[in-house]
Design goal:
about 190 residues, two-stranded parallel sheet
């Protein structure tokens, strides 16, 4: 039996293939998991996703399981000390702006929820609540941003989020299944259609 065809970006390393096969493009509706993915996508900015994928569990351990409420509760000098300590953690991407963004984004998330906004519903509203089904045949056809990711980025920035530019937000939309960007020959494309 021939092996299943996959999107070429995942290569052949076991962890990246597993991510492609079971996570990337699967619709995620849980608000806290969406927040965690938003944080991880922001950490990836300027780097390869596999770098963050391989550090992901370290982020969960170092940052309160990426729980926005627990992160937002760390304030003032305590937050500054926390960031200073994490800048020494070789298991993380040691970029002060990116690490600070984790807390800023937690603050913004909590502020939204305090206004009665359901984070998942709000984000999914940008695609009318259902995944966009793209029909890309070649990796070169897949955009790095769209009008929707631009709008989402603007809305997130307006509410206080950071490291949420249009390209980061499109990668987020791909990862969380808001768009199905598996190539049409990939076995996951039809599974997620």
């Amino acid at each position: 039996m021939p092996s299943q065809q996959r999107c070429p970006w995942c290569g052949t390393s076991d962890d990246y293939v597993a991510y492609h096969d079971s996570v990337w493009g699967v619709p995620e509706y849980d608000s806290q998991r969406l927040f965690a993915m938003l944080i991880l996508e922001g950490q990836q900015a300027g780097l390869s996703w596999v770098t963050v994928l391989r550090k992901q569990q370290h982020y969960y351990r170092a940052f309160c399981n990426l729980n926005p409420g627990r992160l937002a509760a760390i304030q003032g000098n305590r937050r500054n000390a926390y960031i200073a300590e994490m800048l020494l953690n070789k298991n993380l991407i040691r970029n002060k702006l990116k690490l600070n963004a984790i807390f800023k984004n937690a603050d913004a998330y909590v502020a939204l929820t305090e206004q009665g906004v359901d984070f998942s519903q709000w984000l999914w509203g940008f695609v009318d609540g259902v995944p966009v089904q793209n029909q890309w045949r070649e990796h070169s056809q897949v955009p790095t941003q769209t009008h929707t990711s631009v709008a989402m980025a603007k809305a997130l920035k307006k509410t206080g989020f950071t490291f949420v530019g249009p390209t980061i937000m499109y990668a987020f939309m791909q990862a969380t299944g808001m768009v199905n960007d598996h190539l049409t020959h990939c076995f996951r494309h039809q599974a997620l259609s």
